[in-house]
Design brief:
- The protein has 313 residues and is of the alpha+beta class.
- Helices cover 24% and strands 31% of the residues.
- It has helices at 2-7, 9-12, 23-38, 83-97, 168-172, 178-186, 203-214, 223-231; strands at residues 45-46, 65-72, 75-82, 108-119, 126-135, 142-146, 149-153, 160-161, 237-244, 250-256, 270-274, 280-289, 292-306.
- The longest helix is centred in the first third of the chain and has 16 residues, at 23-38.
- The protein is globular.
Length: 313
């Protein structure tokens, strides 16, 4: 019980007023709790440093099909589309568009994320432009922005880590085979056992890790498409038609719905994909701070590799 309580310590540090609870913080605490409960012998610990905003969008696919309005030339028609179709289509589109990059250890990953949010009970929409510079190898201080709050991020202490990894070399070690990627994330902190099948209890936390990986703006070639296809195997999905991204573009939404009693029992954030190409457009989410709940739309406008903090591509 003492170990469990120590795993919950991050929850006591959150204040509803300063700053708002981000999905990154939530995922980080869940990771620490998961490590405490299931892999107490692991040498990996999770640092407390703030990271680029990671929306924990539990997206997955089972044999659930929803009727979605899909445009076909100039005449719209109704066609059943499954989450599996959307996610595999997103993987195909990613392979078509992705470019191979090889950042040096002394460089930084630059991201520009646009976040719009509106109070659920009415009020004006506020827009945040979050620019961040994350050290490629973690040896330098990073500079991040979360909902307009800018701060320097210290270098990890020895043995510290977090999810998603911020070091490029750690991302490169993740398999680009969808099945192996799922097993690797399930067995986080230890040696992957590819002969051990996934159990029902493994899926909730695994989908957190896969979905978090997809929110990393820049990934090694083949990893993002593998993550999309890995999500197509995770149970607990529904397809939501007529979802809009932060720019008002309409697409198909994919939402993870967890078992009763879990944090996602009422549905997690919604990933929005283009209804025709299945290209990822952005995310819909909500957050609560200071007793208020906000609807939130976000997307990554720019991502690139640069040589120094404050340099833009």
């Amino acid at each position: 019980m003492n170990e469990l309580m120590r795993g919950l310590e991050p929850l006591t540090e959150w204040d509803a007023d300063t700053p708002p609870l981000t999905d990154t913080a939530r995922a980080r605490a869940l990771f620490r709790l998961h490590q405490t409960m299931y892999v107490p012998a692991t040498p990996v610990t999770v640092g407390r440093r703030p990271l680029l905003r990671m929306a924990v969008a539990g997206v997955a696919a089972v044999a659930i099909t929803t009727t979605v309005l899909v445009a076909n030339d100039s005449s719209p028609r109704t066609q059943p589309v499954s989450a599996t179709t959307v996610l595999h289509g997103a993987a195909t589109e990613e392979r078509r568009l992705e470019k191979s990059i090889a950042p040096r250890d002394d460089q930084f990953i630059y991201t520009k994320e646009i976040i719009k949010e509106t109070p659920t009970k009415g009020g004006s929409t506020r827009t945040y432009v979050d620019e961040s510079w994350s050290s490629v190898d973690g040896s330098k201080k990073s500079y991040v922005s979360e909902l307009g709050r800018k701060q320097w991020v210290p270098v990890f202490a020895p043995g510290q880590g977090t999810w998603p990894p911020t070091k490029w070399t750690e991302l490169q070690q993740l398999p680009t085979d969808p099945r192996k990627l799922l097993i690797t994330l399930r067995d986080m902190g230890g040696k992957p056992d590819y002969s051990k099948p996934m159990r029902a209890a493994d899926w909730p936390m695994t989908q957190v890790f896969v979905s978090g990986l997809l929110r990393t703006p820049v990934l090694p070639k083949g990893l993002r498409s593998a993550a999309y296809e890995a999500l197509a195997n995770v149970p607990g999905i529904k397809v939501l038609p007529h979802q809009k991204d932060a720019d008002g573009r309409e697409g198909i939404g994919i939402q993870y719905v967890g078992a009763p009693g879990t944090p996602w029992a009422h549905g997690g954030p919604i990933m929005v994909f283009d209804a025709k190409t299945y290209r990822y457009l952005g995310m819909r989410d909500q957050r609560t701070a200071g007793g208020k709940t906000y609807r939130q739309w976000s997307y990554v406008a720019v991502s690139a590799v640069v040589d120094r903090v404050m340099q833009r591509p």
